[in-house]
Amino acid sequence: MKISREIKTAILILGGVFLFIYGYNFLNGNAVFKRTKTLYAIYQEVEGLVSGAKVSINGLSVGKISKIDFLPNTTKILVTMDVRQELYFSNESTAMLYETGVIAGKAISIVPVFDPQRVVNDGDTLKASVKPGLTELINRQIEPLQIKIESMLISADSLFAGVSNVLSNDTQANLKSTLENLSITTKNLNNASLAAVEILKTNQEHFNDTFSNIKYTSENLRLITDSISNVKFSRTIKSFTETVESLNKIVSNIESGHGTAGKLIKDEALYEYLTEASKVLESLLTDLKKHPKRYVQFSLFGKKEKTLTKEEN
Length: 313
Fold this sequence. Notes:
Blueprint: H1 5-27, E1 36-43, E2 54-57, E3 60-70, E4 77-84, E5 94-99, E6 106-111, E7 127-130, H2 134-166, H3 169-202, H4 204-230, H5 233-256, H6 259-266, H7 268-290
Parallel strand pairs: 2-6, 5-7
Antiparallel strand pairs: 1-4, 2-3, 3-4, 5-6
Helix pairs in contact: 5-6
């Protein structure tokens, strides 16, 4: 049995349509022959999320967004997701809306919770959460800085207004005069520095001689200090130590009563004898002063020795 040309053409057209539908769904992530579960999540705002965006778990694509529409009688957004049938995470899992890139839009990542008693079924609604994107994080960081900058600008404006009010005509004239005096002072300092440079140039030779003398003096001082450091102090210190030890021995002998000096200091009998002799000597000198003729007689021709009376004796 021959197949007519019309039947062949119809079969070819139907096969092309089927391949087109299959390829379109494959490129969009739609499963043609695989069974899927339909899950839902409710958000307050889904800017950047479009139908066909991927649904993933830990970065692996497990489905797509099939529909985005308002929740009936509210302004909340109901997002419909088609995911693989073989996924068995809990219906307590979270559908987190996140930003895939600065210009790549948004997608949904399921944060799974595994509980065999509460496996997700077709038509279940997952918890919804939103992960801040890069733009939102930047805005959060910039907002406090923006507030500070605005506050600084307001303070600067107030400062300039206060300065403008303070700077009256007289104040401006005084400020101008001060600036002129400062300019004159700067000019004088410049002239003084030029004069100092000229003096240094003129007396450079004298300065060189002075520094040479200082260097020579420092060398001499170094030699003197080296000579002093080389002196043998140990011998002198040893002699001084021996002298001190000898003095200590002498003092010890005196304190113990040995020797003449020790007996003079320690012997009480000798002390009393010397005291008595001193008294007798003092009486003799006193009598010599009162009656010198008793002890000294002088005559050119000689004279008989005078006999002392009883009273004189």
